[in-house]
Write a sequence for this structure.
């Protein structure tokens, strides 16, 4: 197994340079905040980019899938485990986090597959605008289901990770931030390995390149697309869970703004490219936090979209997107 | 941005849906005596048993008081106890035979869209109330931003609004106030019992600086009419006292992560935080997340009435419910007197009817309804139809020479519609109350003078 160095070197190089610049600009404490926020954006952006890569659908319901994931995780924690406050036993805490995360990811994956089956598959050969409108419809359906089930006011998310902090390079970092970043990185590496090294991953890549040719070679297109939606929704579920842990309260319309920013991250990184989506997520978070640090919170969204426009003006297919014309 | 446009389209669809569900008219159930021992309004007619035949203005034997408040979702803790104040008065007046033989009902409108107050929904509700000819006056709205959208409509139609809770200066005072009533500048249609932010903001600054002894503060507002206004007046007073405002931020209600804001502010070591806004527009989350930042764990957080909703922990949407343990050491101001008029049985009556303590603005809403009833009593003598009764209520209520005996004491209103006897009450959280779930406790109240009083 040889690693294609030039292919990996560029994104890693861009990532490393961006991280160093941002650390110098933000300082330890805000760097940790931005990294945490970026990890959440990146987890959602991956879903946008994977689905676009394989079926060329901008899945606008994805932000709401993320929101449903946070409610599913909250429901599992409170209703099944009866959790309300911090879990102090480290072993119990790690075990609970792992179980809740796994259950959330599997549950959301199944929901993602279900949405694909009923809302998108029947429209696969319809004009492009049709599934786009369906996606927006799904977005509203998900929001209204959650608003009806849990009410439109903010719902408390059990803070099971104790608020303890450790000192690091002049800052005080909460263990929760560390957990979120490590978990996101592990999931992203696992995704890269899955897409790059497994049979199913190869099927996904070939379907993305040329669906008909892949079908002729014996790839089950329906299964491959369903698995793509499963993974995308599972990652969003993981993101939803950590968003709940991080913010402490969740709301049915949470997916709109977070989803919009994650979508921006996916476009910024080059839609269809998973590494690009991850880097895009961190870039968006850093721009947002930097706007806050220099005192322009009100303008943070303007800053985010200004960066997007600048990138698209100079690199129309995004930071890591390949310049392949119509079809990626 | 394609999604933005389509999202707005969808939001409009939701707006129509929620407006439909919110416009249901709920007549009060209590038409017979429900233990109303006190005389509800001092100026009510001495009718004994409802033998009076109502005038021609009383079409169908009933007229309505409209209520326009945020009643659902994150606003439940704000709107519902306030609306209950109106329902209580309506039940008491009806038990005493009505106004000049005419029974009262309510037309309840909800301006919460997706659980948060919404000016466009409020404007639409106001048009509904204007169109209902039997509505002779409106109690509401709760939020100043909503009032700004509604006053031009009510002013154009000559329908009285009495807000128990609006505090933004702009709502009544020039130059903005003049613009809202430009349809009929000589016939104002809006009065409020709550104390303007030109008093609420500075009194919070005085409290933090003098009573709590803190000399530096971080201010964050929610970018709305109310939040920015109260934040500005707080900031000006705190600086005047000699305090330092280390940082001022504006974060819209769409903010999902307040940690970077508070991290940046904590680096400047403020001794206190002022949350200029309301809990549903982000201050609840700001409090909860702000507390997790190093240096912010124990310093006092102070908020205006949008934060000090006086809802005990566990109430849906209440500040203490949302913030949980982070609600410890939080102080708040409310633009109304805590102590009611001597001899008022309001608190006992309210508790007997609704089974819980009144909200921050329940008594004020009761007083607003009293003002409408008292004005209607005067207007009833000359009114010939519903339109003249509505105009009579408006003219009597806004007349700055009239005084009204209410649960809040004797009230009168200046030429802009502001209460001439403003009060500020101070509260703080106590997390040991309410079975460990926390509640607000009363600290003190102060009276001020209205600079525009005649």
């Amino acid at each position: 197994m040889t690693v294609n160095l030039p292919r990996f070197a560029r994104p890693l190089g861009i990532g490393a340079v961006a991280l160093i610049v941002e650390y110098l600009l933000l300082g330890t404490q805000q760097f940790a905040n931005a990294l945490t926020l970026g990890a959440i954006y990146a987890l959602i952006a991956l879903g946008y980019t994977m689905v676009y890569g394989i079926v060329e659908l901008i899945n606008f319901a994805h932000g709401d899938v993320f929101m449903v994931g946070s409610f599913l995780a909250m429901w599992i924690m409170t209703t099944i485990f009866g959790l309300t406050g911090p879990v102090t036993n480290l072993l119990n805490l790690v075990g609970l986090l792992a179980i809740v995360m796994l259950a959330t990811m599997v549950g959301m994956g199944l929901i993602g597959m279900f949405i694909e089956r009923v809302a998108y598959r029947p429209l696969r050969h319809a004009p492009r605008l049709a599934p786009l409108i369906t996606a927006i419809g799904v977005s509203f359906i998900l929001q209204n289901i959650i608003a009806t089930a849990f009410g439109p006011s903010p719902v408390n998310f059990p803070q099971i990770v104790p608020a303890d902090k450790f000192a690091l390079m002049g800052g005080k970092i909460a263990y929760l931030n560390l957990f979120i970043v490590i978990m996101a990185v592990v999931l992203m590496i696992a995704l890269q390995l899955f897409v790059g090294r497994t049979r199913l991953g190869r099927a996904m890549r070939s379907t993305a390149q040329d669906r008909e040719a892949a079908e002729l070679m014996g790839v089950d297109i329906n299964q491959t697309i369903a698995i793509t939606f499963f993974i995308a929704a599972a990652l969003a579920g993981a993101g939803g869970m950590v968003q709940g842990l991080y913010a402490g309260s969740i709301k049915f319309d949470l997916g709109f703004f977070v989803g919009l920013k994650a979508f921006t991250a996916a476009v910024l990184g080059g839609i269809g490219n998973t590494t690009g989506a991850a880097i895009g997520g961190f870039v968006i978070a850093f721009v947002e936090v930097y706007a806050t640090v220099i005192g322009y919170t009100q303008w943070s969204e303007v800053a985010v979209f200004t960066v997007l426009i600048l990138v698209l003006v100079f690199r129309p297919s995004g930071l890591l997107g390949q310049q392949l014309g119509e079809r990626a | 941005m394609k999604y933005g446009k389509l999202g707005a389209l969808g939001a409009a669809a939701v707006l129509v849906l929620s407006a439909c569900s919110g416009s249901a008219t709920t007549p009060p159930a209590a038409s017979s005596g429900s233990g109303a021992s006190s005389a509800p309004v001092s100026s009510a007619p001495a009718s004994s048993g409802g033998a009076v035949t109502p005038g021609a203005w009383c079409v169908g034997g009933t007229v309505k008081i409209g209520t326009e408040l945020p009643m659902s979702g994150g606003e439940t803790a704000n709107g519902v106890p306030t609306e209950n104040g109106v329902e209580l008065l309506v039940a008491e007046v009806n038990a005493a035979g009505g106004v000049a033989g005419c029974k009262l009902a309510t037309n309840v409108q909800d301006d919460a869209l997706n659980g948060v107050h919404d000016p466009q929904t409020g404007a639409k509700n106001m048009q509904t109330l204007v169109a209902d000819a039997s509505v002779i006056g409106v109690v509401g709205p709760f939020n100043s931003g909503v009032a700004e959208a509604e006053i031009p409509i009510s002013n154009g139609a000559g329908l009285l609004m009495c807000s128990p809770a609006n505090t933004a200066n702009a709502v009544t005072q020039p130059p903005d106030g003049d613009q809202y009533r430009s349809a009929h500048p000589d016939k104002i249609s809006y009065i409020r019992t709550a104390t303007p932010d030109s008093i609420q903001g500075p009194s919070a600054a005085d409290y933090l600086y003098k009573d709590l002894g803190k000399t530096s503060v971080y201010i964050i507002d929610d970018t709305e009419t109310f939040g920015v206004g109260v934040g500005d007046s707080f900031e000006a007073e705190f600086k005047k006292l000699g305090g330092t405002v280390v940082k001022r931020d504006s974060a819209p209600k769409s903010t999902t992560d307040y940690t970077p804001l508070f991290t940046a502010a904590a680096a400047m070591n403020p001794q206190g935080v002022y949350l200029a806004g309301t809990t549903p527009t982000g201050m609840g989350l700001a409090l909860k997340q702000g507390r997790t930042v190093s240096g912010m764990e124990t310093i006092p957080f102070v908020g205006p009435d949008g934060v000090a909703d006086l809802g005990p922990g566990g109430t849906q949407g209440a500040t203490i419910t949302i913030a949980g343990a982070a609600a410890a050491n939080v102080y708040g101001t409310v633009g109304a007197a805590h102590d009611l008029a001597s001899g008022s049985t309001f608190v006992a009556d309210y508790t007997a009817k609704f089974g819980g303590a009144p909200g921050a603005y329940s008594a004020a809403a009761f007083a607003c309804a009293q003002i409408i009833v008292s004005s209607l009593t005067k207007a009833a003598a000359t009114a010939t139809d519903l339109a003249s009764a509505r105009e009579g209520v408006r003219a009597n209520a806004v007349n700055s020479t009239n005084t009204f005996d209410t649960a809040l004491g004797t009230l009168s209103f200046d030429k802009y519609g502001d209460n001439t006897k403003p009060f500020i009450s101070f509260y703080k959280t106590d997390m040991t109350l309410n079975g460990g779930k926390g509640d607000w406790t009363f600290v003190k109240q102060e009276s001020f003078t209205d600079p525009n009083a005649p």
User: Anything to note?
Assistant: Residues 44 and 236 of chain A are 5 Å apart (CA to CA). Chain A has one domain: 5-314.
